[in-house]
Task: structure prediction
Amino acid sequence: MLYDNIEIKDGRLFFAGADTVKLAAEYGTPLYLMDENKIREKCREYKSALDAYASDGSCAIYASKACSFGGIYRIIAEEGLGADVVSAGEIFTAKSAGFPMEKAYFQGNNKTDEDIRFALDCGVGYFVCDNFEELDALDRIAGEMGKVQRILLRVTPGIDPHTYDEVSTGKVDSKFGVAIETGQAIEAVKAALSKKNLLLEGIHCHVGSMVFDSDVFVRAAAVMLGFIAEIKKVFGFEVKILDLGGGYGVKYYEGQGEIDIPANIRQVAEYISEKSVELGIKTPSLRLEPGRSIVADAGITLYSVGSVKKITGYKNYVSVDGGMTDNPRYALYEARYTVVTANKADSPLGLTADLVGRCCESGDIIQPSVGFPADIGRGDTVAVLTTGAYNYSMASNYNRIPRPPIVMVKDGKSSVAVRRESLEDLLKNDIL
Ligand code: LLP
Result:
């Protein structure tokens, strides 16, 4: 099936070697499952490609916004990756899980003074500074705290990654970073170099997510290396680190495009070393910030079917016990997924229906026009595949629905990584 951690045996869906129907019965639904070996495999794929092809010191940084919980920072740390963190919440989670904070990169376009102080206090390795106000605030607060902080500067290279608008961030009119094209980026470098409590080490860009086009990162690298050469010319300053952000696309359904990540890393890394020689700059060490491609296919979501509504002459609905609260991606981006009826996985498909959730909202669609067995009904288990990225991390308590647990599966064995939210959890901040 879609990935090598998915198989069908005796009519049941197996994930990471475990029977999903049994797991649904054991832990209840809705349920996020995560395949620990798959996460590790993906980390190693990045690490070995960067070790083999990129300049010394290059490394991958897991963009933890894709899926952030204590246990994942432990896995990432064990695999030797850095972590991209975007809020005090992610920083706190990483630190609490024992993540080495000198390998954390703090991103974001609007860090408050409080965030800055907290991140400095936690010993975050790098700030990825987004704008002039942040440079001022970070310099001031670092000074008050008697620290000198290493930074990267986020710039927009003016690259269109040909993906959907909500995740396209490298264009000149983006809310993120400072634009090279307008001359603001070189001004920001000047400002960064003038701050006595900041140590500028590199420049950063992130062009977008779900990138399949193999030359997107090469085009971004071309602009960024040109900018590094300009920095050298104007200020005589050698940029040490080039961070090209995240964005590799993943396959959500059969027939969707694919990108060979190690081959692309090789292409980008070779381009960077050749171009650096041509431009007369030192080859910068490379950072990549994969989020989705580390965790997406390491996750699936299980639901129990409740009602099956057949509106004769119109359409059909299969309702499950989760919905846009645990997976808002169809509602937000019309994102496509592969759906399998886990306990009838090799039954012929005889009913086309929208897979919908339990929220009081018509937009609560997990996936439209899904094929189900004709006899699908209450109590059946439905699996949505490739939900490891941007599902748990974007889940909400809309309609006061508790968030599902995350159960880790490793070599066929399971353990709870995040407990199911209880009704009491929902009340914990309410003054009654
Ligand atoms: N680095 C930066 C600075 C980012 O903003 C992002 C994603 C990444 C790395 C990781 O990109 P990835 O490898 O995961 O594509 N909620 C949307 C995705 C938003 C991506 C935001 N930034 C979705 O569900 O599709």
About this structure: The chain has two domains: 6-35+297-426, 36-295. The domain at 6-35+297-426 is CATH 2.40.37.10 (Lyase, Ornithine Decarboxylase; Chain A, domain 1). The longest strand covers residues 299-310.
